[in-house]
Design goal:
Layout (H helix, E strand, L loop, with lengths): L1 E2 L2 E2 L6 H5 L6 E3 L2 E3 L6 H7 L8 H9 L5 H10 L5 H4 L4 E6 L5 H10 L13 E3 L4 H10 L5 E4 L14 H14 L20 E6 L10 H4 L2 E5 L8 H16 L4 H11 L4 H18 L4 H5 L1
Parallel strand pairs: 5-8, 5-9, 6-7, 7-8
Antiparallel strand pairs: 1-2, 3-4
Helix pairs in contact: 4-6, 6-10, 7-8
């Protein structure tokens, strides 16, 4: 499993990861080194790394378990490498509301599962000041890992971007749901069409689904409304800041360990698929929801 520039294998030593000494890996006496197509690819994976201690990360994670939406987002971040195994479609977690900090902190917490959540440095957290092409390329490089876009009000704030904010958000949600990029021309012929398995985490003041008419995209978006931490008072602000500081200094430990767990239990993948299908069938048989809710 390629985690940024590092290969995770059954024999990966996570003690080396905790000391920051995990480097390129070797399989059958051949060294494996990630080399992107260009600088953009290299920048995308730069934030997939670890810092601090796994135990410290666990301590921070345990401190938020009473906040249901925060916990849900954290759990969901672990699911990306399971999508292909369970035959699950891509989807989006949309955190929206007027809270000043809770949404972004929750998004960064989810990002800390896999890498650097600090947007001020090499990070896996990006903003909505982007293009559909950039999101598709990021999703392709990060396939089987989640991607993170903060603050929908920044959508369209990029030079030479001809799309309106609502069109950009709508097209990104659709691209994530479909798992395929658009075919695009190049100087000679047509560029390859990207495909990917991912979960998009998004934040904004209003629901991202309000900006798209695509029912397929809406049907694969889970909207979490309001402040994930419940309140916006001074004490909560201090707590949220301390949580964010903790994840800024300890990240990138938990996700790779889950990947290794998946590898170590390869013989059980078929049982996982069967169990997941049974659970879905049971939920749908009890549900009186709309067709969109049934897709979720």
């Amino acid at each position: 499993f390629l985690w940024g520039k590092y290969v995770i294998a059954k024999y990966t030593d996570f003690e080396k990861m905790d000391t920051g000494s995990l480097g390129c890996d070797t399989i059958n006496n051949q060294t494996i080194i990630f080399k992107g197509r260009d600088v953009y690819d290299e920048e995308v994976v730069r934030g997939l790394c670890s810092k601090g201690q796994y135990k410290s990360w666990i301590g921070n994670a345990n401190s938020i378990f009473q906040y249901h939406d925060v916990r849900f987002a954290l759990y969901t971040s672990f699911l990306a490498p399971f999508l292909e195994i369970l035959n699950v479609n891509n989807f989006t977690i949309d955190l929206s509301g007027n809270s000043s900090k809770g949404k972004t902190t929750t998004l960064k917490l989810a990002a800390s599962v896999w890498g650097n959540p600090d947007a001020t440095s090499d990070s896996i957290v990006n903003t909505w000041a982007t293009t559909v092409t950039s999101v598709e390329r990021t999703a392709e490089i990060m396939s089987s890992l989640p991607i993170f876009l903060d603050d929908t009000k920044l959508a369209g704030n990029i030079k030479d971007n001809k799309q309106t904010a609502s069109a950009l958000i709508s097209n990104v949600l659709y691209a994530i749901a479909s798992g395929r990029g658009k075919s695009r021309g190049k100087l000679i012929g047509i560029d390859h069409t990207s495909s990917f398995k991912t979960i998009l985490f998004s934040t904004g003041e209003g629901p991202a689904t309000s900006l798209t008419d695509n029912e397929g995209a809406k049907g694969r978006t889970v909207s979490l409304l309001g402040n994930p931490f419940g309140s916006d008072n001074a004490d909560m602000g201090k707590f949220v800041s301390s949580i964010e500081e903790g994840f800024k200094n300890n990240y990138g430990h938990a996700g790779p360990r889950v990947v290794k767990f998946i590898m170590d239990h390869e013989a059980e993948h078929e049982l996982w698929r069967e169990t997941y299908a049974e659970v879905c069938q049971n939920l749908m048989s009890k549900s009186e929801s709309s067709s969109i809710a049934m897709r979720l």
